Amino acid sequence: MNRPDILLISDPGYEGSSFLFNLASQLSSNIVWIASEPPAVLDKIVKSYEFKGNLRIATPKQWSGYSFVNLMNLNEVSIAISKAGENMKSYTLVISIIPELLLIHGLEKTYLFMLNTIWKIQNQGGQTLALITKDAQSRKEEIMMSRPFSVVFQLRKKIEDKSWKRELVVDTPYVTQEVVPLEVDGFKVKVPEVAIEALKHLRSV
Questions:
Q1: pLDDT digits (tens, 9 = 90+) for 25-60
Q2: Cβ–Cβ under 8 Å, residues 42 and 57
Q3: Which domains are seen in the chain, by residue range?
């Protein structure tokens, strides 16, 4: 597999979404984002990176400039992904609605939906980057939903000396440092070089 699919398990907050979008922007100039984040937060994340490629966002919240996706029907979610990716030769799919899908459809249907989605995107020459918010689902669901992905990162945050400290756990055999600090500037989260290097090794396997 030369284009690894990635799951980020993140503590609550905008940092996970911003990190994943930044990573996607470094992997592809074509991005489809199926997002559950508030549209105002999405706007701030996207603007902070000044992304120059093709970006199409679908969200369950009605918002000017974004497509609508109905989370109550998995077939409609799949159709929304396909429509957003129309006329793109290949693209990176960013999907951050997994906690909502688990809540609405349960583990079995959501798991099968993600398996099929990853397979479809891979066959189109793209890759899937997904986000799960830690503790928004059971530990069992978290473990099972990580199975279809070749790479799992974790983003952790805590209060230290009256300020937030954020770090990324990179769990692959291709890194020398597994826990690295994250630099955050407003809504912008820098992707550590160690994470990029790990993905480069995986893409060459």
A1: 999 999 999 999 999 999 999 999 989 999 999 999
A2: yes
A3: 6-204 (3.40.50.300)
